[in-house]
């Protein structure tokens, strides 16, 4: 299917600084996340399966268009695009609830077709406003949907039986409409057992294998054997008769579905006397963990190549609606051609599976996302895989597991804190660092889709040999005559702030970054690094995306100045856009911006206000009044009034009274109502 992309008016967004756009419009990853959720809802819907594939066809084209032309999107219009996608998500969610009353309501052809037509039209308009156009034949799609709905209605009429109970009718309807191939064939999709014939195909006979001439045991207990006297394969003990080894059959089955050179081959399960063994591809050069330990002088070209292959493997899993669940260097192998391959799928499962808790997963907590560490009962997601992949990227740079100097228990407790990440390794390419930081973002929504990670790593790989100058992290020297960074023992936040106040920005930044990237990151240092990378008034190279990630860390660590700065930046950018839309008569876009201001800015002001910041209290009330949010206005005013009853300085009392005088006028509109 062909599609076109039309460029929007560059002048309209040029009015806003790059920093402000970066702070207020992080929306592309968010769009990806919502689209992926929509596609997952379509994939897992329990009814109306006849019509859903046509919707999926359109949504996949929308996703591919946004991914391919991400850099051309007019980001002013992403709020309206997000609203249109949210409408799709809400509409599709009802398909996941196969109850009789809801089901018959959904299957009303005319009502459904009208609703779908509205969804298509609204999304099409939002895409066009964002400078994108998915060139599909809408009439063809809607006609297909109408025809499929009519077929379903006729089938329902045929199976309706006045003598059948309601439950029997529902059973027949569901049997007719639930057409999920994974339910009957794949355990990893929703917990249904593997079919017997599938298990039989995965069983291997012991007589097919002979001991290898050079008997060798590799890391993880793999033993080399010969398959049919021709191929070297690995044999690993997985249990004895009486053990539940079903998960290993699942692992073997998943591996057969992921038939690609990106994955370590898994041939099946062999029973030898009372023991079970899994037969896999032999890791000629060991696991990636062992390889990195042995070869510490590998080039950056090879490191980036490894990261690209592993990213493609994880993205391939996600495209099949499989989450790996256990991404780390121990679960990848290196073959004799030095190709790294992803393996070990015994924890892998579909996106809708109930997942295990953190308890017992002692070996992978170093790679586990913070939200899963804090609450082991939440579902494992693609975003969790992305976080683990970011940690794996760090392993490739450091040749060490994350937090190698700490015990499991120490890492577990540490990861419950707001933001703890390993320090950036000296010499890391800046682009590589940026991708890695995106993957291990604190907020899962902020993490990029693996398809985006692949694209960025491939771009880095292709440009690596052409331009090695200025590619490395600014925390290290890139020229021979440049002064080295200050010794760690001489770096303090007070020294860095002094250098900043003296406008010695180069040395100040170096010290701030060391403190921000430390194993226990300094909140103020993160704020200043973000400021240096965003604020145009500070003389320093700008990178708003990375700058925003540092500000987010500072906010997570409770530094109210960072919270206030982020909220003010978002609000300024949004206010500017909203005025422009209103002047152009684009009220729908202006309303979308206002809703985004309420949902993103006011919670930040509230966060700062709760920590005792007077200005955030004032801004919560001030912007609450401007946005018509009476609750925010009253909350901000009350917090200031309560502050007056406490033991505070005369200066603070005067400041609060000035704030309250100005806020009283803003609250008059609420009083009139």
From TrEMBL:
<dbReference type="InterPro" id="IPR051681">
    <property type="entry name" value="Ser/Thr_Kinases-Pseudokinases"/>
</dbReference>
<dbReference type="GO" id="GO:0004674">
    <property type="term" value="F:protein serine/threonine kinase activity"/>
</dbReference>
<dbReference type="InterPro" id="IPR011009">
    <property type="entry name" value="Kinase-like_dom_sf"/>
</dbReference>
<dbReference type="InterPro" id="IPR059179">
    <property type="entry name" value="MLKL-like_MCAfunc"/>
</dbReference>
<dbReference type="InterPro" id="IPR001245">
    <property type="entry name" value="Ser-Thr/Tyr_kinase_cat_dom"/>
</dbReference>
<feature type="domain" description="Protein kinase">
    <location>
        <begin position="171"/>
        <end position="460"/>
    </location>
</feature>
<dbReference type="Pfam" id="PF07714">
    <property type="entry name" value="PK_Tyr_Ser-Thr"/>
</dbReference>
<protein>
    <submittedName>
        <fullName>4603_t:CDS:1</fullName>
    </submittedName>
</protein>
<dbReference type="GO" id="GO:0005524">
    <property type="term" value="F:ATP binding"/>
</dbReference>
<feature type="region of interest" description="Disordered">
    <location>
        <begin position="464"/>
        <end position="488"/>
    </location>
</feature>
<dbReference type="InterPro" id="IPR000719">
    <property type="entry name" value="Prot_kinase_dom"/>
</dbReference>
<keyword id="KW-0732">Signal</keyword>
<feature type="compositionally biased region" description="Polar residues">
    <location>
        <begin position="466"/>
        <end position="480"/>
    </location>
</feature>
<feature type="signal peptide">
    <location>
        <begin position="1"/>
        <end position="22"/>
    </location>
</feature>
